[in-house]
Amino acid sequence: MSERENRVITSLDPSEYHGIERLSSSGCKMLLRSPLHYRTWRATPRVATPAMQFGSAVHTLVFEPDRFDARVVAMPTDAPTRQSNAGKDWHAAFRQQHDGKIVLSHDDYERCRLTASAVIRSYGFSRLIQRGHVETSLLWRDPATEVLCKARTDWFADDGSIIVDLKTTADASRETFMRQLWNLRYDIQAAFYMEALQRAAAVMPHSFVWAAVESEPPFGVAWYRMGLSELEVARADIENALHLYAECTRFNTWDSGYPTEVQEIRLPPWARRRSNNEAPIQEF
Q1: Model confidence over 45-88: pLDDT tens digits?
Q2: Which residues of 137-159 are buried (b: 16+ CB within 10 A; e: fewer)?
Q3: Which one of 21, 123, 132, 190 is most buried, counting C-beta atoms within 10 A?
Q4: Is residue 34 classed as helix, strand or coil in its secondary structure?
Q5: 69 in any annotated domain
Q6: How far apart are CA 119 and CA 126, in angstroms?
Q7: What's the burial of 217, exposed, middle or buried (CB within 10 Å: 0-12/13-18/19+)?
Q8: Considering the entire predicted model, what is its pTM?
Q9: Backbone phi and psi for residue 137, each to the nearest 5 degrees, phi listed first
Q10: For 6-16, what is each residue's pLDDT tens digit?
Q11: What share of the chain is helix, strand, coil (3-state, %, to 5)?
């Protein structure tokens, strides 16, 4: 199959997906910071943090429950501590025995089940998650820049009408999630994934929705949709990242970081409102 062909792959292993040299939504975010940051990020081996592993375990239990036992294992409650050499050897042997699996402590394993259960029991899940595709890799070539791109969705509907992304978080409230959304540029992820489905699967989703679930009691769940005007802003940033990637690839120049000149800083709109003692805008 030609690299130029747009493809939908349902059987690609996550490690294989991450090894593909194509531009992703995370890559776009790094490029918008600087090409130097992108090159450093791309060359750094991916190491899953405990929070990332917990999130992956919750994701599996929500979307692929039949595969949960093959992917996640709980540490026995009577496991020895690592304070002695014998204890360290036991833990090393246990992880080797379950190589390739996510190993959670007994408490985290139970917390994972409660977190996933909260999502499944939520109104949004029964309303939105019907027939669809899980952990699907989308590969395509951007027609304007010829840049090879990739995306890996949590879930999208059979007809491609909606994409759902699951986020585990400490606080799923609307105001906190909005702040996290802009700080981590989830808007770029949303716009990029919608473009991915359109290019690779020839369908245009009408909505990108996040299921935000708290990973501590009471395991609150909230569902958020990306606004159309916000998606347009994200698409403009993605277009800039695509052109920058194409230029850096063409000339093999990734050394540029932050601008060297002195830059003026002005208060953003939200800070001006706060300085004027105005109530924050609650629109999403």
Answers
A1: 888 899 999 999 999 999 999 999 999 999 999 999 888 999 89
A2: bbbbbbeebebbbbbbbbbbbee
A3: 190
A4: coil
A5: no
A6: 9
A7: exposed
A8: 0.88
A9: -95, 130
A10: 889 988 888 89
A11: 50, 20, 35
